[in-house]
Amino acid sequence: MTALLKETLVGTELKLPGALDIRGLSKEYRIEGKPLPVLENINLRVNAGEFVSIVGASGCGKSSLLRLIVGLEAEYSGDILLDGQRIEATSLERGIVFQDHRLFPWKTVEQNVALALKNHKLPAAEKTRLVAEHVKLVNLQGFEQAYPHQLSGGMAQRAAIARALINKPKILLLDEPFGALDALTRINLQRELQRIWVQQRSTMIMVTHDVEEALYLGDRVIVMDARPGRIRHEIKVDLPHPRDRASPVLQKLKEQLLSELIGSDLDAAKAH
Description:
Shape: globular
CATH topology: Rossmann fold
CATH class: Alpha Beta
Distance between the termini: 42 Å
Structural class: alpha/beta
CATH superfamily: P-loop containing nucleotide triphosphate hydrolases
Number of strands: 10
Order of helices and strands: HEEEHEEEHHHEHEHEEH
Largest sheet: 6 strands, mixed
Number of domains: 1
Radius of gyration: 19 Å
Number of helices: 8
């Protein structure tokens, strides 16, 4: 984040939409009639315009947490509040991008992005303008009429991000969005996502297994324990954007984060 943008965010934080409050959140599933705790007493505040990364071993409930925030699941105890309003169902105020781009194969990039505006009562010309604006935002100009099978994996994910952002959600959730991509494409898309975040100033929460990715993008990194999922540790990344991947600060934080994750895995193994 540039110094000017950081100053702007600090000065207007309370006025910006997209503040998330999670209070005493617990979630369980029932398997063969028996309760299976998935999340336990999660308390987390995400400020408007903040980028938060969530890491943890498989099975710690990271993706379940995102599903609850986006409103795909409604049964839980505790509170999830977006700008003071309790989340109980899906809403255009919350967008999500999955590891799989989930584009419709029979529709072009332009048509896939436009689908997000289907239920909006906007003039056709305004919808066309918004689609063009968001295709440009993710650097897909010239590929508007391409079909998903004609795109690389990275390009398809950029189209999915454009579709998620076109409704101007207060908060964008990202569930391992680059997990299926090769290393070079992943690095390039991390840079693109950072650029989009600085430009859009949406609140973003990303689940990832990539420690470097979590630190490179996040203002904070939340470390979760597994079974049931709970917050173990929080690391603040006090560096401006764009960041240097070779920064000594990031390298030191990487060692700290890996130590926390290894400790989390050891504790989980002892408990089981």
